Amino acid sequence: MSTFTRRATLGLLGATLATPFIVRSARAGTAINVGAMRLASHAPSYIAYERGYFTEAGLDVNFDYFEAAQPMAVAIASGDTGYAMTAISGGLISLAEKGVAKVIGGALSEEQGIPGQKILVSNAAYEAGVTEPSKLDGKSWGITQAGSSFHYMGSKIAAREGIELRFKPLQKTGAVIGAIKSGQIDGWSIVPNLAATLADAGAVQIIGEVANYIPDYQVTTVFTSATNAEKEEAQTKAYLQALARGTADYNAALVDETTDAAEKEALVKLVASYVYPDRPIEEASASILAGAMRINADMALNKTSVMDQLEWFKAGDLVKDSITYETLVDDRYVDILS
């Protein structure tokens, strides 16, 4: 485990899976904590857990739940959490620069022809005339923290439209949801299942698609501590390949729709039990089906997108200019998409 404590890591923030077969961990029954969020994009973790793929890989998994990317990065770097999937953030990049975190794969992606992340506005903003992204000029945009994926998406949209946005950090996804529902912020972008849930409830309006502004965006990555990447290679490969099995099930049933109806229904119920545990299955199913985005097969990584994100962080002075792709990514685990 990393020698960095959670407190020390917080201080720092102030500043190829070519085979489909499971690689077993060297220590059967190895206990690991996996970071998760109650989003459909984390479905592969839940599928791998419920269908025994982690167990078959010799891993005893416990989930640590988070509400934003940066706290997850802190927990990974400090060793409190072993592995996770979430967006690249300024915090994650800075921790990689300090030698305590590494990206080891890709996950959620924008793909042409598949529903992706939506651009939302509050009802108040929509009624005031913000009916398309170009009309967001001078408006407020919700983010969790500076350097989050929400910050990146908002900046790319603003640059493409030639407008300015006022970014409002609210720390947690739940707080951003509350703010856009109440009209305290004007705009936001989020995965389609959550966007559909809010829009169907009449709480927000959908005015655009993130994919039109950031095509082939590598939305989330798989990452771990530098210690795990360097010293626990068998365990790390076992985790990745179990996760890839969960991804294959998810893509087949909910994205490519190449399975039978029974498998599709089973996957929807499984995912809903984690993402929407308090909602009737009929409501939860509609949101999950409406928001199934591609998750990269074999946890492959879109290097081009990662490089674009790195350049954006550097241009905004959110991370050091000396940081390279190799600083962030451990290529021994990674299949490259492009």
TrEMBL record:
<keyword id="KW-0614">Plasmid</keyword>
<feature type="domain" description="SsuA/THI5-like">
    <location>
        <begin position="41"/>
        <end position="249"/>
    </location>
</feature>
<dbReference type="InterPro" id="IPR015168">
    <property type="entry name" value="SsuA/THI5"/>
</dbReference>
<protein>
    <recommendedName>
        <fullName>SsuA/THI5-like domain-containing protein</fullName>
    </recommendedName>
</protein>
<dbReference type="Pfam" id="PF09084">
    <property type="entry name" value="NMT1"/>
</dbReference>
<keyword id="KW-0732">Signal</keyword>
<comment type="similarity">
    <text>Belongs to the bacterial solute-binding protein SsuA/TauA family.</text>
</comment>
<dbReference type="GO" id="GO:0042597">
    <property type="term" value="C:periplasmic space"/>
</dbReference>
<dbReference type="GO" id="GO:0042918">
    <property type="term" value="P:alkanesulfonate transmembrane transport"/>
</dbReference>
